[in-house]
Batch of 4 targets.
Target 1
Amino acid sequence: MRTTSRHRAAARITAAIAAMSLVSACADTGGDSGSAENYPDRNITFIVPFSAGGPTDTVTRLLAEPMAKDLGTKIVVQNVEGAGGTLGAGEVARAESDGYTVLMHHIGMSTAPALYQNLGYAPLEDFETVGLVTEVPMTVVARKDFAPATLQELVSHVKANAGTVTLANAGIGAASHLCGLLFQAATGVQLQEVPYQGTGPALTDLVGGQVDFMCDQTTNTSGQISAGQVKAYAVTTPERVQSLPDLPTTAEAGMPELQVSVWHGLYVPAGTPQEIVQKLSDALQKALTDQGVIDQMAKLGTAPVTAQDATPQAHRAHLDEQLKTWAKIIADAGVKAS
Ligand code: ASP
């Protein structure tokens, strides 16, 4: 994980967002499903807290196949979308602590507690971390007939047309929302935000011309950028993405403060037996070294984390650090879900 670039990005976000005010268990040792030793002896459900076809969904489905093979069972992917990913996360927090309900979530796990007053779960208390998965760059993309040709032109355009330009996101606390906040803070313009239950449907509307622009992970936008179905302005990381070599970074395009990348991790409910958490983590680590997964991630502008980062311990430490970082950023910015 690129800790230093992440910290730099967080610092920029703090400074930029603060400049404007936008309102925008105890252990259950496996229930009746049998012992940790026999785990898994039935299908596992992976909950994706955003819509099907979006970036979180894509990463989940990519991993589900090799993990299922390794665990010797089926993995069923279920989308429980809404409220910036908090509905799906809440469902997993309340699930049996038996390892059969697993959550794939992203950076939103660390932003939600500061944004939502009645979240209904606490990331560190109500979940066991299984391991980090990947860190994905975002892109700034627009409908293909949107007038601005470059990021600088986009800035001038939104300044001149703030009342009419629409910005899509996947709900409060979603990565697209955070990136959109950053964009608005950098430009000093408050835009009309259009929330979706995931950036899968948001991208469909962008391609269809129903919304003007948005930020989204390369795991969702790469195909549409390469096919010319959307207009791409920049990638939000310090370096260019190998699979999109012509796309400038936000710094190259004149907006260095727009930097954010999206880390993902797997979770099970608190109290899940450690042997089960370890079995899942081992399967995750193996899946992340699968050549098919590596190749597919590379095509989508990302890469698996190291085996060391795909452990429960590294994931917990990262979540802990990110919760503190985002609590401060969000408190300074005065942003709330409602
Ligand atoms: N990319 C979305 C976000 O803004 C989430 C998703 O649809 O996977 O966080």
Note: Residues 50-51, 54-56, 108, 170, 174-176, 198-200, 216-217 surround aspartic acid (CB under 6 Å).
Target 2
Amino acid sequence: MERTYIMLKPDALKRGVAGEIISRIERKGYKIVEAKTMQLGKEVLKEHYAHIADKPFYPELEAYMTSGPVLAMIVEGPDVVLGMRILMGATKFEEAAPGTIRGDYAFCTTENLIHGSDSVENAEIEIKRFFK
Ligand code: IDP
Ligand code: MG
């Protein structure tokens, strides 16, 4: 069974929509096999976001991602990596379709509520990174 790394970002917890997002994941038929809240440090975040760490928006992203706890999860299901990316919606808030998590809840691109691995290979790396 395929697994992916899902992380509800600090705004999801601050706004109190974590439960609604989890409901969507469960309604889709996916299983949450592990979950924990944690406070991200700058070092692990830079490792996780190495592909964008040199972008001009990174300092703002770092401040946001370390502003409060995240909810880290391992989610399991058939083709769950791709399926979760579809449930999440596009990265840029103006491109996230209604009906997706980001399309329904995000009003800017930095604070877009949820992370999901973008490939099966990265899912395994991210699960190891955050669940040791
Ligand atoms: P993803 O989260 O959809 O996989 P990535 O390109 O991996 O998108 O970017 C990681 C995170 O960085 C995004 O979820 C978002 O929070 C932030 N981000 C990406 N691009 C921008 C941007 O152009 N402006 C502000 N924040 C961005
Ligand atoms: Mg990404």
Note: The pocket of magnesium ion (ligand 2) is lined by residues 118 (CB under 6 Å).
Target 3
Amino acid sequence: MLSNSIKMLNKAKNEKYAIPQFNINNLEWAKYILEISQNLKSPVILGVSENAIKYIGGYNTVVNMIKGLIKDLNITVPVSLHLDHGKSVQSCINAINAGFTSVMIDGSKFSLNENINMTNEVIKYAKEYNVSVEAEIENIDDNYDNNSYSKLQDIIEFINKTDINSFAPSIGNAHGIYKNEPKLELNLLKQINENVDIPLVLHGGSGIDDEQIKKVIKLGISKININTQLQVEWSKQVRIFLNKNKNVYDPKEIINSGKDAIQKRVMEYIILFGSNNKY
Ligand code: 13P
């Protein structure tokens, strides 16, 4: 069944493991991830960006597709369907109306005050529907070379003035393929964790080495977002398959040729994050 992410994230925070958020790009992605999460008894968050939502068909299509998969595949682990980086209040409202159980309001391009106001608007609406809300204040870069870090005082002010369920700090992480080896600011994370009560989220999880992942989980990260790594590994496998099988034209075979690559990586992440056997 779909649920919000409050209970799963709080349990992860208390027991020091991290819930994976795997971003989905299509039906197959969702199916592969749900199957492995069920096999490993791991709660899971399926993240969908505004772009991916548009690609798949719209908010309602995504919700009904995921509900259908949960039913037909007999998925019993907790699954949260999350709008990743909702860029406007309206986008979050659209997701909630369609049946998403979790949203991120990303007001990081706005001033702290504007971000607080936007976030509070989303929270007010989300509470009526029992939907969880994640937010960030400092833009987590898309230029693959993150130089922006959240300021502790701003984070404390933001969390005191909103009632968010989880917070995504900027600690040297970035989305996409890192240009240089990422070095996370663990001291900053430690300070944030000492001053903040709610679960913390690491965006840009692809490309961060296992040792740093283990350290950030100890320092309060309770959710880790992964997208790029699954795309890279799926496309690599599909390219090999197409080069070897010049006469195949069935899209089912072509898309599915990347299945094992995705499922292997999802399994490795779940075990690294420690979310297996939690339900
Ligand atoms: P990556 O694509 O770098 O894994 O980041 C995913 C993410 O943070 C989605 O919000």
Note: The chain has one domain: 6-273.
Target 4
Amino acid sequence: MKNLKKILAVVLSVMIVFSVVGCGQKEEAQEAAKTKLEQIKESGQLVIGTSASYPPYEFHKQIDGKDQIVGFDIEIAKEIASDLGVELVIKDMKFEGLLAALNTGKIDMVIAGMTPTEERKKSVDFSKVYYVATQSVIVKADQVENFKTPEDLKDKMIGVQKGTLQEEIAKGVVPADQIKGLGKVADVILELKGDKVDAIIVESPVGKAYAKNNDDLGVAEIDFNTGDSGSAIAIKKGSTDFVAAVDATLDRLMNDEKIDEFVAAATELADN
Ligand code: ARG
């Protein structure tokens, strides 16, 4: 009798465990059946990843005594969140870590002035291009005249943000030991100020923003013959409905010439 009770208890607990596991699997299966767009709407949050030392795209700014992440990418992200009817959550990280964060599900999309290169398209999908910029070089203000062609960089130390297109451009101009790559553009700027690097390659609006805020820095326009860098939003592969929703917001913003407005406002905000 005692034994029978024991056996019964074991059988029962095994049944409970199985039913709990069964439920978990079912929930998971349902979750997987939901599209990315449905998941975002249900969670009430759009979690974006960015790398916020790239004015006027995205940067930190003290507003009313509070540190905030602002910039034209952020304005675009706000519009996407509001079109989806959800709250915007911003995660600031190193640029080089953004696509991994996207593919492991830590963030829903990347908006970071990211160029939709063929290499990146192998691992993620992209929205349409919402902004196009040329390349430029930040140097010490008194050095601007000395930097006119890629040749002028030959014996120089070049600073870049790790994992960017600009790092690739640098590789095409100087050997690897003349390239210093760091996670944040703000840190590369410190290297330039400390004469550890001679020139930093960035997109031209970024060069202008840093030069305007730092009297000791200037911008040299060098044509690297690499073409312009467009910016697009990166989304995990296979989220077709989410990409379509993002493109719809971008279409609306571009038709209303809102993006130019955001760029102008963000440039002004970065300037003071
Ligand atoms: N457009 C360049 C790229 O995709 C640089 C982007 C850097 N963005 C940033 N938020 N730091 O590689």
Note: The radius of gyration is 24 Å.
